[in-house]
Amino acid sequence: MALHFIIPDCADAAVGDVIALTGAEAKHAAVVRRVRVGETITLGDGRGTWLEGVVDDVAAARVTVRIESRRSHEAPASRIVLAQALAKGDRDELAVQAACELGVDEVVPWQAARSVSRWEGPKAAKGRERWASIVREAAKQAHRAWIPEVAEVESTARLAARAADARMLVLDPWTDTPLTGVRPDGRDIVLVVGPEGGIAPEELERLEAAGAERVRLGDTVLRTSTAGPVAIALLSANLGRW
Questions:
Q1: Are 25 and 7 in contact (CB under 8 A)?
Q2: By the 8 A CB rule, do 42 and 3 touch?
Q3: Is the pTM of this model over 0.85?
């Protein structure tokens, strides 16, 4: 499989054009992945453009590629959004990384009541940048034509507001409704995953009052780093993506 790289301004590239990787992406291609002249690689802008080309020249600061084919991938009609509660250590980051590899379309950092980690002040911007970097690299590794968006950190109130325009599914191991029974209805799906201590009762009530549905994955209780990716895999099958 050809190596894949991101170049934001390649949407207008045509077959026969020569375009260049520069900056960090060029260094990654030339120094880390050691691409060679004549090697076939793929390029994308993260917004649906997909190019295949042959490397013309390699330098640490600039890699040029001659485009041989191009395609455009449409965004999914029904998106999967992961509202991932902030968690201690790197558990939330592990969830975000795996979710991106498995096909999530947007990631929402959720400041849940029981989240040990707190994104406040400058830390909110830094946290979002960190998640965006994780998403970008995971999308490259998975050869995704669309890079998922990372929203600003949301409170429970802001998260609940999303239920007005989407189908919100809250993972709750204590409910009787299985996620495997959920069938697509054309709306975006917002999947809500709580922190290590679970979702607080008042938060569940607020989300349900806004229209959210509680669903469970099975008879076991999964970690916050595992639950979201598992649910996304099941939803991808139900949506016909897999």
A1: yes
A2: yes
A3: yes
Give the whole-angstrom CA distance, residue 206 versus residue 111.
14
Residue 186 gets the label, from left (phi > 0), alpha (psi -120 to 50) or beta, of: left
| C-alpha distances out from residue 70 to 6, 53, 67, 158, 165, Å | 14, 9, 8, 39, 34
How do residues 155-213 score in pLDDT, each as one tens digit? 999 999 999 999 999 999 999 999 998 888 999 999 999 999 999 999 999 999 999 99
Torsion (CA) 74, 10, 80, 162 in degrees, nearest 10: -110
Q: Is the pLDDT of residue 236 over 80?
A: yes
Put the strands of the sheet holding 49-59 in their side by side order: 3-6, 40-44, 49-59, 62-72, 18-22
Supply the DSSP symbol for 216: B
Give the model confidence (pLDDT) of 11-58 as tens digits.
999 999 999 999 999 999 999 999 999 999 999 999 999 999 999 999
